[in-house]
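Before we proceed, please read the two lines closing this message. Let me know whether the structure tokens fit the sequence:

…
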Amino acid sequence: MEAAEIGLRERKRQRTREVIARAALDLFDRQGFAETTIPQIAAAADVSPRTVSGYFPHKEDLAFPDADEAFDTLQARLLHRSPDETAAAALRGWIGEWLAQADPEEMRIRQRVVRSHEGLRTYEHRFRGRAQEVLTEAIARDLGAAPADLEPRMAAAATLAVFDVLDADTAGSPQEALEVVDRALRFIDAGIAALR
């Protein structure tokens, strides 16, 4: 019984979090990030401002509600891959799973919101730095090198460019985006193989 109650509470928490994030995204898109207040988001989500801040301590977090979880799963995917799977192949698998779960319209709106506000673009770089660190370590493992070596760092920087091709406005559907990613990662994988 206790486990069921914990499961129910956790599902309610997740639903509340999703409702808040969606309300914030709608408001950011309609009236702008800077012009949207926490009380407005709370009213749209039918929760208190304190609840919004409890789930999202910084207003910028509302524009990237799943980023920490996404990078945690990416890190786990790269860390626990089989010895014969390259970092680029593991990244491709992770991106495919991520795109399969993503709502293309929500992706487009989120990208439009982030592009429209310089502070959000800057905030987004925090996640890119984390991704580069994770990819550098994974590629260093592929190369039998240290993460501080030049080659893993250069390959990770080039690999990060893959995230730029996931622009939903130009890539179209998730399937089309994945095809673009496949081409880019084949190129990256060949370059890493050449460094071995």
Remarks:
- The domain at 2-62 is CATH 1.10.10.60 (Arc Repressor Mutant, subunit A).
- The chain is about 80% helix and 0% strand.
